[in-house]
Design a protein that fits this description.
Helices cover 28% and strands 28% of the residues. It is built from 16 helices and 26 strands. Strands 1, 2, 3, 9, 10, 11, 12, 18 and 19 form a 9-stranded mixed beta sheet that branches. Mean pLDDT is 87; it is low at 5-13, 368-384 and 531-543. It binds the ligand O=C(O)CCc1cccc(O)c1. Residues 522-543 are annotated as: Disordered. Pfam families: FAD_binding_3.
Length: 543
């Protein structure tokens, strides 16, 4: 086995062949994590088994909050070019009568369509292209990871094999973005907690120029005899999902019957099944997401049935939550305990979304237990299942639960702002419209309705926060109204745009500086290699 000298970073290496971060898996979560770290000047080596982008579609939907993460990774415009806004979610009964309809806005509060559909290989190509243009990240594909281990506080050792033999990397941190069968999860001794949903479904991806009866949104067929999902994902691309009755894949004739409500499949019609695959939809969550400096992200940490379209979204949220914290620890010597907040913040959020997906699955299938079986045949059961209303109403992303960085000493406004995501309206920069995050950059930020007193400026300067007055910031004064509704005169935003603290209306200080300051305190200044906000502003344009 060779210790990989080529990986040695010249400026920050504590020893030979030592890397700041190794990422296992170059799917969308791994590559997004690499791009987000690169924006902070952190080098990564990304190890991937497949040589090419995996060609078959899997994830198909993303919400507006998560497009904002792609924006932070620098690929939002490229994503928008391959995405298709969806009109929303409809629950239909067995005879395809609409039981409930939940429309999604073309422009949500984060500045993007509330639901967008896409083809996963197309998204992966966008991300890989961006990775190729990123000098801080190196993709090594066609490799098999053999082992991941860390002794005490020492470096994490990652061994892998390629055509030339076996290699060993040493890294400060390893991110396991290696999917449901994660070798990283096994390596840290993490096991699945079962969230009680397991069904065999067939997923049929189709390309056709035939007219397809569709509503340009996602249709969930709530029919215990034959539950199904249908959605359009591109100009001539469609997806159907059907629960398998007896475990057997439908043959051509059965498929024709199943698709009949949407499309007439005459012989010889232009209709190509791009992929038909059986899946076991499961609900699971890893019991631990971190061991030492090894972390689990995406499907390595959580599995959800696809019924609310949040599987990939959860993984991208993982990457956004972890990367700024990791940068602060690796580059600026922040307290190691900051990294514990990754799991404590992300796990309850992921669990919440998995539960919503399971509730939706029960609504569609009549459930898997005796009590649920009693609901069978009852029209409208779908909209009565607890928790489903919020899923359907798209209350997908709850505020983070309380923790060291989200203390919620005060509960302000109707929901309270702390722990929630700040909206992203268009703002005016030098006479042009831009998205808020372009102005805020990658760092902490303060949005304020009033001038901050010098004592607070000292605190926010210590975080490297940019202070932005909201008055006149956008044409609609949306942020000023948001602060008013939240009864705050200022908010302190983390780099991932979560509200970390507020200055209550009428107050003159943050509510919990002592709570978060010790975790965020840095012992080194940001290295010059970090890309500046100015660079980012120059690179981005607004649609
Ligand atoms: O809630 C929405 O707008 C769509 C939810 C969705 C997306 C993709 C698949 C799916 O089964 C549901």
């Amino acid at each position: 086995m060779t210790v990989d000298q080529a990986a040695e970073p010249p400026d920050s290496a504590p020893g030979p062949g030592h890397l700041p971060v190794v990422i296992v898996g170059a799917g969308p979560v791994g590559v997004t994590a690499a791009l987000l770290l690169a924006r902070r000047g952190i080098r990564t080596v990304v190890l991937e088994r497949h040589r090419e982008v995996y060609p078959l579609p899997r994830a198909v939907a993303i919400d507006d909050e998560v497009i904002r993460i792609l924006q932070a990774a620098g690929v939002q415009e490229e994503f928008t070019a391959i995405a298709r806004p969806a009109r929303g979610l409809r629950l239909l009964d067995a005879r395809h009568r609409v039981m409930a309809e939940f429309p999604r806005a073309a422009q949500g509060e984060h500045g993007f369509p509330q639901t967008s559909m896409f083809d996963q290989p197309a998204l992966e190509r966008v991300l890989r292209d961006a990775l190729t243009d990123t000098p801080e990240a190196e993709l090594r594909d066609g490799v098999e990871v053999l082992g991941i281990a860390q002794d005490g506080d020492g470096p994490v050792r990652v061994s892998y094999r390629d055509d030339e033999g076996e290699h060993l990397l040493r890294a400060d941190t390893v991110l396991g973005c290696d999917g449901a069968n994660s070798i990283t999860r096994d390596a840290i001794g993490s096991t699945w907690e079962n969230l009680h949903f397991e069904e065999r479904w067939t997923v049929v991806d189709v390309r056709t120029s035939l007219p397809v009866r569709c509503w340009e949104g996602v249709e969930q067929i709530c029919d215990p005899q034959q539950p199904a999902t249908f959605m359009r994902i591109g100009e001539d691309r469609y997806r159907w999902e059907f629960r398998l009755r007896d475990g057997s894949e439908p043959d051509h004739e059965r498929l024709r019957e199943l698709l009949a409500p949407w499309v007439d499949l005459a012989d010889g019609a232009d209709f190509e099944v791009v992929r038909q695959a059986q899946y076991t939809f499961r609900a699971r969550i890893a019991d631990r997401w971190r061991h030492g400096r090894v972390f689990l992200l995406g499907d390595a940490a959580h599995l959800t049935p696809p019924f609310v379209g949040q599987g990939l979204c959860a993984g991208l949220r993982d990457a956004y939550n972890l990367t700024w914290k990791l940068a602060r620890v690796l580059q600026q010597g922040a307290d190691e305990r900051l990294l514990d907040t990754y799991e404590s913040e992300r796990k309850p959020h992921a669990r919440h979304l998995i539960r919503l997906a399971v509730a939706m699955g029960w609504a569609m299938t009549g459930g898997q237990d005796r009590a649920a079986a009693l609901r069978r045949g009852v029209l409208g059961a779908a909209v009565r299942i607890p928790g489903l209303t919020s899923a359907a109403a798209r209350d997908f992303s709850p505020a983070l639960t309380a923790g060291p960085l989200v203390r919620r000493r005060v509960r302000l406004g109707r929901h309270g702002l702390v722990g929630g995501f700040c909206p992203q309206p268009l703002v005016n920069i030098d006479g042009r419209h831009a998205r808020l995050d372009e102005l805020l950059g990658d760092s902490f930020a303060v949005l304020t309705a009033l001038p901050l007193p010098p004592s607070l400026l000292a605190v926010t300067d210590g975080l490297g926060a940019r202070t932005v007055p909201v008055a006149g910031l956008g044409d609609d004064n949306r942020l000023a109204a948001w602060l008013r509704e939240g009864r705050a005169s200022a908010v302190l935003l983390r780099p991932d745009r979560v509200v970390m603290d507020v200055v209550p209306a009428g107050g003159d200080t943050f509510t919990d500086t002592a709570g978060w300051a010790s975790l965020l305190h840095t012992t080194r200044s940001t290295p010059p290699s970090q890309r500046s906000t100015e660079t980012r502003l120059l690179r981005s344009t607004t649609r």
